[in-house]
Amino acid sequence: MKKEESKILDKLGKNAGFKVPDNYFNDFNARLMESLPEVKITEEEKPTMWVRVRPFVYMAAMFAGVWLMMNIFTIGSKSTATGEQRAAQISAGVANEKNAEELINYGSVSDYDIMTYEDSVNMEMEEHDNAGN
Amino acid sequence: MAAKAKYDEAEIIEQLHRQDTCRAAFGRVIEHYSEQLYWHIRRMVIDHDDANDVLQNTFIKAWTNIDNFRGDAKLSTWLYKIAINESITFINKKKALNNISIDDDDSFLVNNLEADKYFDGDEAQIKLQKAIATLPDKQRLVFNMRYYEEMKYEDMSEILGTSVGALKASYHHALKKIETFFENND
Predict the structure, then answer these.
(1) Full-model pTM
(2) Residue A2 touches partner B, C-beta closer than 8 Å
(3) Are B10-104 and B107-186 the same fold in CATH?
(4) Helices assigned H by DSSP within A1-133
(5) For chain B, which residues make up each domain, given as ranges?
(6) Cβ distance B91 to B109 under 8 Å?
(7) Residues of chain B found within 8 Å of residue A8, distances taken between Cβ atoms
(8) CB–CB of B44/B141 below 8 Å?
(9) What is the pLDDT of residue B84?
(10) Lowest mean pLDDT among B9-18, B31-40, B60-69, B99-108
């Protein structure tokens, strides 16, 4: 701040030469308090529990509504798909390499199934032999 | 004598918004701010009796509008704004009463300073007051707030609604004008 000021002001100092009557501020404060008119204060009401949780409830309801609508449209689209549309969906799925592999795997027979089948054939043959004897 | 309770502005603002505590809280506000606002007003209107009237109007206006003060700004900023408005309104009314154009400077306020019983300054201090009175109202405010009150430019910016850069420029211009006044009135 010093660098902003001038030589003239440096010489004069910050006392402007003004003064007030003795005990002025105490008297002023007391007089003013007596002269203040009545005022009406609008007190802020504390928010109720419902007011506080309302935004969250509204948001939850909105998400639930969106979820419900998505489900309704999904079901609707399934039931209204024509045979051609379904065929197109299947062919699109088959074109995908991953889906195709899944389909192949789905169609193949597991070792367990093979063993079970061989065992049952062997068992049948044994039963037949035993019956022949 | 009982010790004064600590002034906690947040607590005072809360009490100001309750019907049962607002009057006492406002008493604390008056106690806390009356002196600094008085000196701010006195440097603007110069005369003690005028400063007393403007200070009283400032607090009464603040009190009657206390319900509109929501605590978004500092209480001091709000009170200073009211005090500045009241001071400028008072000076303009006084100009009108004395048939002085509203565009003229406020030199007329300093004319009877020598005769003021609540002024004990010397010739140089009277000359400084005359120099300050030649400044436009806003420049006079900026000069007084910075030079006498040593207020931060950031706080002044909030009160006057002017950028810090513009306030610094305004203060610099005020200093130059005061120096020129002293050079021309040697």
Answers:
(1) 0.71
(2) no
(3) no
(4) 7-12, 24-35, 49-80, 83-95, 97-107, 111-132
(5) 10-104, 107-186
(6) yes
(7) 128, 178-179, 182
(8) yes
(9) 97
(10) B99-108
Share of chain A above pLDDT 70, in %: 67
Instruction: Write out the two tokens for A106.
Output: 């789905």
Instruction: Number of A to B CB contacts under 8 A, please give it.
Output: 103
Q: At what angle do helices B75-97 and B48-64 cross, to 10 degrees?
A: 130
Domain B10-104 in CATH 3.50.50.60? The answer is no
Please tell me the number of Cα atoms within 13 Å of B31 on its side-chain side: 14
Segment B13-22 mean pLDDT: 92
The closest CB to that of A17, out of B121, B150, B178, belongs to B121
Q: So what's the pLDDT on residue B57?
A: 97
- pLDDT for A90 beyond 80: no
Q: What gap in Å lies between CA A24 and CA A26, rounded to an integer?
A: 6
- Class of domain B107-186 (CATH, top level): mainly alpha
Take residue A25 and report the two structure tokens written for it: 């501020």
The label of the residue with tokens 């969106």 reads A66
d(CA B156, CA B172): 15
Q: Dig out the tokens for A64 from the structure.
A: 């639930």
Name the residue in chain A with its Cα closest to that of B27.
A33
